[in-house]
Amino acid sequence: MPPVAPAVAPSEAWAAYRRRVAGLVEQYRALPAGSPVRLAKRTSNLFRPRASAAGGLDVAAFDGVLSIDPDARTADVQGMTTYEHLVDATLPHGLMPLVVPELRTITLGGALTGLGIESSSWRNGMPHESVLELDVLTGDGRVVTARPDNEHRDLFFGFPNSYGTLGYALRARILLEPVTPWVHLRHLAFGSVAALAGTVREVCATGTHEGEPVAFVDGVWWGPQECTLTLGSWQADPPPVVHSYGGQAIYYRSVRARSEDWLTVRDYLWRWDTDWFWCSRAFGVQRPGVRRLVPPRLLRSDTYWRILAFEQRFGVKGALDRLLGQPEREAVVQDVEVPLERLEAFLEGFAREVPIEPVWLCPLRSRDPGRRWPLYDLDPDALWVNLGFWSSCPLAPGMDPDHHNRWVEAEVDRLGGRKSLYSTSFYDEERFWSLYGGGDYRRLKAAYDPDGRLLDLYQKCVQRR
Ligand SMILES: Cc1cc2nc3c(=O)[nH]c(=O)nc-3n(C[C@H](O)[C@H](O)[C@H](O)COP(=O)(O)OP(=O)(O)OC[C@H]3O[C@@H](n4cnc5c(N)ncnc54)[C@H](O)[C@@H]3O)c2cc1C
Known about the structure:
Layout: H1 10-30, E1 39-40, E2 57-58, E3 65-69, E4 74-78, H2 83-90, E5 95-97, H3 108-114, H4 121-124, E6 131-138, E7 143-146, H5 153-158, E8 167-178, E9 182-190, H6 193-206, E10 208-209, E11 212-213, E12 216-223, E13 226-235, H7 251-257, E14 260-264, H8 265-269, H9 288-291, H10 301-314, H11 316-323, E15 329-339, H12 343-353, E16 359-364, E17 384-394, H13 403-414, E18 418-419, H14 429-435, H15 438-448, H16 457-461
Parallel strand pairs: 1-2
Antiparallel strand pairs: 3-4, 4-8, 5-8, 6-7, 6-8, 9-13, 9-14, 10-11, 12-13, 12-16, 15-17, 15-18, 16-17
Helix pairs in contact: 12-13
Flavin-adenine dinucleotide (FAD) binds next to helix 3, strand 8 and strand 17.
């Protein structure tokens, strides 16, 4: 097991947290009524273009773990703590959060309010499903602690998928689970989506594959004729070989090249971050000559975000493409969920309509089918598959600039799926609220942000205000 870290001095950390909360409430109340409220965060994984965070609430100090209880397997974590910092604090105790999103700078608060998923989601659901309680700075300037069984229970269950429009998460107590030092990976290759789906169903029902217990499941669709499924198992004994994908080696290529592999648990958790899944190829850093020159500390998703933010601000690439007579392109960056039995139908249409490969696949099931999360209500008895695709497509002359994104949205709807709201959406207001818990949301808005200090969910996610 990894070495056990010395206990944190929780009383000091908690006292500092309370002072910080009081300061933030003052900051919030001092904002002139009617002025827009935003979080001034250093990092973001939101793809929708948004107004600058300049002048927003300064929440930088809310990054850090307050305390860890290794016996109860819980952690009290501030809302702006990045998963990188969270994992750094829990691993020395031989523990990790039940779901660790793939990108290092996703924060706990961002994953709770904007949802998250990873290869443990087939047994642990989404990050909000392992929260025990939550401190929220609400739109009306109060700080409340929401639990599943207290007077703020509706906020507790309505917070996931509210995207900071009911309030901001300042602290959460979350469950942790034990880790082993290594993870054993088996990469299984399939010639059809139907065959992959059959194995996903079997593994998620039994929790084993060919006699070996499985802890993690995710996959990649490389195109209509090829997909891979990666099964991760806990490994306590030293493996024959340990690979690392934080430097020259590129993880997503290894999935096709190897049939099995071993990683340290930390490298496993960040396996997708180094090359932003595969998206770093757009920045040239997968070419060996370039990669050798880039310090490994810069091979991480937030570096690529910074480059992208620069591009979005100044439109350098678009201008260059126009100069060279290249066709206009549409960014198609989406995560969607469909029931496992519709996976094949979705990918069949996707292959025809949206020229993007690869696609990340990740099964997902409710951790506790007795609980409902009204703003992102997935059938708790179904096995879902998340599909992530993050690229761009050429637009034919005369094509609607959102052509492919609109096709994805309509197809997900037709197949009874659900779309994450971190990127562009086009629903009309009536359809949007019927999908994302309009009735519950209106009641929560009236209770926690009656004067509309924060945007509402439709304004934020569809109208991109
Ligand atoms: C290309 C791409 C790939 C992605 N891949 C994955 C993935 O593989 N796995 C995964 O789990 N997720 C993924 N996501 C989604 C990501 O987890 C969500 O967008 C998440 O909300 C980002 O969190 P953040 O901390 O970076 O928050 P930000 O991007 O800064 O903010 C996201 C939203 O949450 C609000 N918010 C932020 N912090 C708080 C808080 N403390 N309280 C209340 N509201 C808050 C913000 O106002 C904003 O509306 C991906 C997103 C993109 C763009």
